[in-house]
Structure formats: C-alpha cells, structure tokens
Design a protein that fits this description.
248 residues, alpha/beta, Rossmann fold, 2 domains, six-stranded mixed sheet, five-stranded parallel sheet, 9 helices, elongated
C-alpha cells in the first residue's frame, strides 16, 4: 500500500531546513507532528523532598535541553544563585549550545560529550573529586545510573521534570499510513489514549531498540526501523521505505 500520510509523535521542527520538510517535498507525502508525550516540571517543594540541596554540588550532568531548562527553573524557584565555579557536563554539543541561554559560555567550565552518555563518561571520570547532580525526568535510561556507578563518582539523581502522556482524543477518527515513534513512552501514550487500537494497514516506524521492544510487547508489527548502518536517521529510513512501496 502506498504512503500518503505520516504522523510523527514529536513537536514540529522549528528549523526551516528540517529533513522532514525535504521528505514531504521529494516524496509528495503529508507529514503531521503531534507530541504523544510532553514534559511537566516538578516544583521546588518536590525536589526538596528528594533531599536535594543545590549548594552541595560542584558539577551538573545535563543530558538534554529539558534538563538544562528545569535545572535553572528549580534554581530560581529555590532562590539559589548558581555559582560561576559550577562545572557543566553536557551529553552533546546541542545540549552545551543550549546552555548559552542561561550562562555566559566562555566564562564557565563546560565539558562536552559527542552524542551518547557513554561518550561523556571519560570526561566525568577525569573529575572524580566533584559532587555531581543529575537533574532528570522520571524516565531515566537505565544505562545512565549504571555508567555513573561504574565510574565510582559521587553523584545523585533528582527528578526535576516528568514525562506525561498527552491527550490525543482529537485523533480518534484520524488515520495515517505511518505512525512514527521515538520512545517507549510514545507507544505507551498510544495505548493509553486508544486502548482498543488496531494496527490494520497502519505502518509503524520506530527509533531505537527500546522503542522496538515496547512496540513488540504491544503486538505491533514494526515496518520501519532506525538507526541502522544503511539508514542512520528516521527520515532516511522513511524515505527508503516510501520509495519502495510508492513505486509499485
């Protein structure tokens, strides 16, 4: 069956040159963006209940832009002046670049990984004497605490924001040829919103092994998967699939 419509379970890209817009144009398909999950910040009172005193930490581990936003939000709510001496360990360049929204980059000690948390770990290991705080969501990838424990550093995780299922009731009578998922939470949101969901002719595209597993646990057939050596991005995987089925 040919592909004409795609629903991506994420917010619409804010950049004009997003590969999704190129895909739409090249393959003559319609792509909609609707987040299946969203993030809600917890308040300072809830953070205090986790026995977190921001003044006790000399380094912050930031794994996403959300963790940056919510760290500085909580600091403000707690009336904590973030010291210039604080060290920032950012999982990727994108996270480090986003940090500039809050600090003067050249005046801070910022250490940047390549992309994955594992790639950031050698930098953390170099600074074993620091006290690390990991502001995170309630859904933390298990490899992160495992990696930090293996480094034998002094660290603490604190939940600063939560991943919440979005209300998708306005999609009840809308059908797409492909649904695109990037996390197990997205799959969970689909079935919380539509417990009687039947895949029928809908193709399912997933990013990452944990998302594949979540889809299979719900008895979904995964038609499109990324990353692979041949298609490292979701847009490449979608394009490859669309070219094949729309040719027929």
């Amino acid at each position: 069956m040919k592909v004409k419509t795609i629903l991506v379970s994420q917010p619409e890209p804010k950049v004009e040159n997003s590969p999704y817009f190129d895909l739409e144009e090249k393959e003559k398909v319609k792509i909609d963006f609707i987040p299946f999950i969203h993030v809600e910040g917890v308040d300072a009172k809830e953070v205090r209940l986790q026995k977190v005193d921001l003044s006790q930490y000399t380094a912050i581990i930031l794994t996403s832009r959300n963790s940056v936003d919510h760290f500085f939000r909580i600091a403000e709510e707690m009336r904590f002046k973030v010291p210039d001496s604080l060290k920032y360990f950012c999982q990727s360049e994108a996270v480090a670049y986003y940090l500039q929204k809050y600090v003067v980059y050249r005046k801070r000690k910022i250490y940047v990984g390549k992309r994955t948390f594992l790639e950031l770990s050698p930098l953390i290991k170099k600074y074993k004497s620091e006290k690390f705080l990991l502001p995170s969501s309630d859904k933390l990838k298990p490899e992160i605490p495992k990696t930090l424990d293996s480094l034998k550093v002094d660290w603490k995780q604190a939940v600063f924001y939560k991943t919440v299922v979005s209300d998708l009731s306005n999609l009840r009578d809308v059908f797409y040829d492909i649904l695109v998922f990037f996390s197990p939470s997205g799959i969970q949101s689909l079935f919380e919103n539509f417990p009687d969901f039947k895949q029928n002719n809908t193709r399912i595209a997933v990013f990452g092994n944990s998302t594949v597993k979540a889809a299979q646990e719900q008895n979904l057939v995964v038609d499109i998967q990324a990353p692979t050596p041949e298609t490292p991005s979701m847009t490449m995987a979608l394009q490859k699939y669309i070219k094949t089925v729309n040719k027929k």
